[in-house]
Amino acid sequence: VIYAECFGCVTSFLIFSVFCLMYLTEKMCPAGWVNFNNTCYLLSTESDSWDKGRQDCRDRGADLVVIDSYKEEEFLCKFIIKQDTWIGLNDRDNEGNWKWIDGAPLILAYWMRGQPDSGNGNPQWGEEDCAHLQAHMKTDQNWNDVRCDASKQWICEKVP
């Protein structure tokens, strides 16, 4: 009888411990943010320049999104739905040398056909040094370069 009682207590304790551990290790995102693969994402409700978008993300303890997997690219395409959105990629320091805001070089790329083109040298478009996700495009071909002062929504990313 004592063995059965102890076994029941140990079993209950282990089940309780597992649930506590699952709760503590599950990463929580702030209200309004969406969790994907233990990372939090926020789609802005306003539009502005790449720099203003980045500053807004930083003010929230985050930064513009760095896309480092196809699964993340797929998620973001579903996440943005209708709006073009800034991502944390630019070639401001050296034309044609695209880098993420965390300093990582561009390895995975999902450029639209013919992009990046820096406006093809057309003064109408100016220097196109910042990248955005183009809404309504194929998942693996939806990045475009555009002037950094263009007005777009942005996606913030942070680890909880």
UniProtKB/TrEMBL annotation:
It comes from the Eukaryota. GO terms for molecular function: carbohydrate binding. Residues 36-157 form the C-type lectin domain. Pfam families: Lectin_C. InterPro entries: C-type_lectin-like, C-type_lectin-like/link_sf, C-type_lectin/snaclec_domain, C-type_lectin_CS, CD209-like_CTLD, CTDL_fold. The chain crosses the membrane at residues 7-25. The keyword Membrane applies. Keywords: Disulfide bond, Lectin, Membrane, Transmembrane, Transmembrane helix. Signal peptide: none annotated. This is C-type lectin domain-containing protein.
